[in-house]
Design a protein that fits this description.
- The structure is a single chain.
- By secondary structure, the chain is of the alpha/beta class.
- It has 15 helices and 22 strands.
- The protein binds flavin-adenine dinucleotide and NADP nicotinamide-adenine-dinucleotide phosphate.
- Flavin-adenine dinucleotide (FAD) binds next to α1, β2, β4, α6 and α11.
- It is an enzyme of class 1 (oxidoreductase).
- Keywords: FAD, Flavoprotein, Mitochondrion, NADP, Oxidoreductase.
């Protein structure tokens, strides 16, 4: 039988769960050929599921069905989840009161390690740093999902015009939430305090700015169609010349559909709705001039550099022209990168250094028994389906190392020749399979570390509270969850 395997996973998002579920199902508990296996998952947030809980837009409830699979994974007796545990040297200011566990504690206690830490930092624009008039999209997403970092609510009752920079799906998520009536949103997983702010919103127009053209827009057609069909908002028609593809260019299906949708325009006639939105192509932010007084009605002036597409590189190149867009609030939605404090972060890639699922050292050699998956390994691109496919491949790679003779080893990347592996072994070869780092033992005793059973108690209570309000769920913050868990643990 292969030697025992004790795998620590840092991160409790979809990638982490998909790797865990794949490994546990391919190495059945009762199979005498399976190595003794433990999978311990750590997340700095007290609740599991990463961006599925703290990212996916509330009006897309079906996307969250993947959590049923994650729940099933968590019932495997070899699996444990520890929430509210920040691993490594990441500054803790963003997650108040998370327990800190140095990476060395993980290295000393585990034989294998997977980084599934995602890309948790928003990409900022150098020309328009964060200010009262410019915030990253992530702080709005964290606000409406009640993320433990607790960003302040946006002053939506003091603004009329909001500009999103970036034309990806996160931009469209935010635009949709701001342009949808709270009476529609209230059936979903939107906290009451968020609905309250949305119901006082005076936002009338959302501009969505992209540095390239409609054919290069990062949003997908499903999300564009939802914008076009918004019942209470209309799209400002787009200059037809911008929607005429250059002759001789073969369009992809997605590009064809995007052009068709944009040419058709929104379901509501322009000007017929209380709210509106517009797409601005070939515009890149150059500067933001703040108003001289901080009166609520004063707008900032966003200077936009006009651009065109370099036909060779497909990059946006400034034409030299500029224009000004008065706006109450700029929201930058330019994608995400991994936390630079994470071990093995590569500044050039802006995510962790890895190859075919294996963490690599700076000289490119694979580190023994260390892996990376999901956005941590590949950068902030792709949806849950692609995250799952990547996670299954990484599980295959891990499997090829821990049970090379297993029949399940079919999709794995071939193990690198031994000579390519970095010689130093950072992990523990023979850890006690059921022992936990002492900090975690104390954290569980003090009630500061959550486990999956605790989460299921909160999950059921959130759904119950939501049901009483006629909605999908009503979320709890950490303080409330902490007391509720303590009470439920105290019950006989
Ligand atoms: C706003 C937003 C909306 C999205 N909506 C959709 C959608 O509708 N449909 C869709 O298919 N895809 C959507 N996606 C994409 C999808 O969420 C990602 O493909 C997926 O979440 C990536 O999974 P992951 O596990 O790699 O990262 P994440 O989901 O980010 O999980 C990483 C986890 O690691 C934890 N972590 C990080 N560092 C540490 C540390 N040091 N110690 C402990 N824990 C740590 C984080 O707290 C987090 O929980 C969306 C993405 C965003 C940003
Ligand atoms: N409903 C869904 O399925 C859903 C919802 C949310 C997120 N997601 C997925 O999550 C991933 C991340 O989404 P995202 O919207 O954050 O990122 P994204 O898809 O990468 O879009 C980022 C946008 O920002 C622009 N941008 C980046 N840097 C810029 C700069 N310096 N100046 C001007 N513009 C800049 C990009 O333009 P360029 O193209 O010119 O670089 C692009 O328009 C995507 O794969 C997305 O599909 C999916």
């Amino acid at each position: 039988m292969p030697p025992p395997v004790k795998l620590a996973i840092i991160g409790g998002g979809p990638s982490a769960f998909y790797v865990a579920s794949r490994l546990l199902s391919l190495l059945p508990l009762k199979d005498p050929m399976s190595p003794p296996l433990r999978v311990h998952m750590y997340d700095r947030l007290w609740a599991p599921h990463g961006l599925v809980r703290y990212g996916v837009a509330p009006d897309h409830p079906e996307v969250k069905n993947c959590t049923n699979k994650f729940d099933a994974t968590a019932t495997d007796p070899r699996f444990r989840f520890f929430g509210n545990v920040n691993i490594g040297s990441t500054p803790l200011h963003s997650i108040p009161r998370a327990l800190h566990l140095p990476l060395t504690s993980i290295l000393n206690n585990y034989s294998h390690l997977l980084f599934a830490t995602g890309c948790t930092m928003p990409t900022l624009h150098p020309a328009i740093p964060p200010s009262v008039y410019c915030i990253p999209a992530l702080s709005l997403v964290h606000w409406y999902t009640q993320h433990p970092s607790q960003p302040p609510p946006p002053a939506l009752d003091k603004i009329t015009h909001l500009t999103l920079i970036g034309q990806g799906n996160v931009s469209l998520d935010i635009a949709r939430i701001l342009l949808t009536s709270p009476s529609v949103l209230r059936q979903y997983d939107v906290p009451e305090h968020v609905l309250e702010v949305l119901s006082r919103s005076t936002v009338k127009h959302v501009s969505i700015v992209g540095r390239r053209g409609p054919l290069e827009a990062a949003f997908t057609t499903k999300e564009l169609r939802e914008m076009i069909n918004l019942p209470e908002a209309s799209m400002v028609p787009i200059e037809p010349t911008l929607l005429t593809p250059p002759s001789g260019v073969a369009l992809t299906r997605q590009q064809r559909r995007t052009l068709e949708l944009l040419q058709k325009g929104s379901k509501n006639r322009p000007g017929s709705t209380p709210k509106s939105w517009s797409l601005h192509f070939y515009r890149s932010p150059a500067s933001l001039t703040l108003p001289s007084s901080a009166s609520a009605l004063d707008m900032a002036n966003l200077t936009l550099a006009h651009t065109h597409l370099d036909p060779a590189t497909h990059r946006a190149v400034p034409t030299g022209e500029t224009s000004t867009l008065p706006t109450s609030l700029v929201v930058t939605s330019l994608g995400f990168h991994a936390d630079p404090e994470t071990t093995f972060f590569d500044p050039a890639l802006r995510h962790l250094r890895s190859s075919a699922g294996r963490i690599t050292s700076s000289d490119g050699s694979a580190l023994k028994n260390m892996y990376a998956s999901g956005w941590a390994a590949n950068g902030a691109k792709g949806v849950l389906a692609s995250t799952m496919i990547d996670a299954y491949a990484v599980a295959g790679t891990i499997l090829s190392d821990i049970a090379p003779s297993s029949e399940a080893v079919t999709t794995a990347a071939p193990p690198p020749p031994e000579t390519e592996m970095a010689p130093d072994e950072l992990l523990n070869r023979r850890p006690d399979l059921d022992a936990l780092p002492s900090e975690i033992v104390h954290g569980i005793k003090d009630g500061m570390v959550t486990q999956y059973d605790d989460w299921k108690v909160i999950d059921a209570e959130e759904v119950r509270r939501g049901g009483a309000l006629g909605k999908e769920r009503e979320r709890m913050g950490w303080d409330e969850a902490l007391s509720f868990i303590a009470l439920s643990r105290a019950r006989p």
